[in-house]
């Protein structure tokens, strides 16, 4: 029997995340499909076709990392107008790849996914760079690295520019380790964290918070307290039985290191079950 669409999408997300080589575009598109199940697989296919089309418009094999970065900026930033604004931080669509491709607006990390996927399809030496608070894209090897900022239309970043971005967020200078390639699971975890943060600021959107947490729990590794967050959301959504079970399960994990905290969580589980009466 075919799974109901939302469940099938989550199953595909879990399988992709746990595969030998997780596909970044596929993971991001599955997140978008879970957010809007009505679009489902056709929406995913259309987005993949659009990424292929954009890649086909790049010039053939630019010579250097800088040439690659400029070619992407010319195509995506200048010709097609992909960029971000402060207002994009207030929109859920800015974290959904299908919508970013449609609107040509998004958060730095989703715009970077567009850059990465178009560049990768064209054969560019490209990787994501997870700077604190502002995701960017790197072209070329460490000794010839060129950074571009898709949020600013693909503007090239000098080492001083990158350091300024990091210092503005952390108060510390740029550590070279921050320039390492970000793997797909690191990227999708950050995307889901952004969605959870968006929903946390909007108590009326517990539905979004719930599916974002549930997808995060499907990743190969996650912090234990994510299960506690999941349990609390279930209770808020009125699923008292599942919420209580999750709280009890989390209490068992906590009990080994903090028995008092575990007992408090068990009390929350009892209170959740009492709301059934």
Describe this structure in words.
It comes from Streptomyces fungicidicus. With 277 residues, this protein is an alpha+beta fold. It has twelve helices and four strands, in the order ααααααββββαααααα. Strands 1-2-3-4 form a four-stranded antiparallel beta sheet. The chain is globular and about 70 Å long. The two termini are 36 Å apart.
Summarize the structure.
With 277 residues, this protein is α+β, with helices and mostly antiparallel strands. It is built from 12 helices and 4 strands; from the N terminus they run ααααααββββαααααα. Strands 1-2-3-4 form a 4-stranded antiparallel sheet.
Q: What is the global morphology?
A: globular
Low-confidence stretches: none
**SSE sequence, one letter per element:** HHHHHHEEEEHHHHHH
Terminal-residue CA separation: 36 Å
Number of strands: 4
How would you classify the helix and strand content by structural class? alpha+beta
Strand order of the largest sheet: 1-2-3-4
| Biggest β-sheet strands, sense, barrel | 4 strands, antiparallel
Tell me the radius of gyration. Answer: 21 Å
Strand content: 5-15%
Number of helices: 12
Query: Can you give the mean pLDDT?
Result: 92
Measured as a percent range, the helix fraction is: 55-70%
Organism: Streptomyces fungicidicus
Protein name: Tetratricopeptide repeat protein
């Amino acid at each position: 029997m075919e799974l109901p669409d939302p469940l099938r999408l989550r199953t595909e997300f879990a399988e992709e995340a746990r595969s030998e080589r997780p596909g970044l575009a596929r993971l991001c598109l599955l997140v978008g499909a879970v957010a809007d199940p009505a679009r489902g697989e056709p929406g995913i296919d259309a987005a993949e076709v659009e990424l292929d089309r954009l890649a086909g418009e790049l010039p053939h094999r630019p010579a250097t990392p800088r040439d690659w970065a400029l070619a992407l900026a010319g195509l995506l930033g200048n010709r097609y107008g992909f960029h971000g604004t402060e207002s994009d931080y207030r929109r859920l669509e800015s974290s959904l790849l299908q919508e970013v491709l449609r609107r040509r607006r998004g958060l730095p990390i989703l715009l970077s996914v567009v850059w990465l996927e178009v560049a990768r399809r064209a054969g560019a030496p490209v990787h994501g760079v997870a700077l604190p608070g502002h995701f960017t894209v790197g072209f070329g090897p460490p000794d010839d690295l060129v950074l571009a900022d898709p949020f600013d239309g693909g503007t090239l970043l000098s080492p001083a520019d990158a350091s300024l971005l990091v210092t503005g967020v952390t108060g510390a200078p740029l550590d070279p380790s921050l320039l390492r390639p970000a793997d797909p699971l690191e990227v999708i975890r950050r995307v889901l964290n952004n969605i959870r943060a968006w929903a946390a600021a909007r108590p009326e959107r517990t539905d979004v918070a719930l599916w974002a947490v549930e997808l995060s729990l499907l990743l190969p590794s996650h912090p234990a307290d994510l299960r506690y967050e999941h349990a609390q959301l279930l209770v808020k959504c009125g699923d008292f039985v599942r919420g209580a079970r999750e709280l009890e399960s989390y209490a068992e994990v906590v009990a080994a290191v903090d028995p008092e905290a575990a007992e408090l969580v068990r009390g929350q589980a009892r209170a959740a079950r009492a709301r059934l009466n």
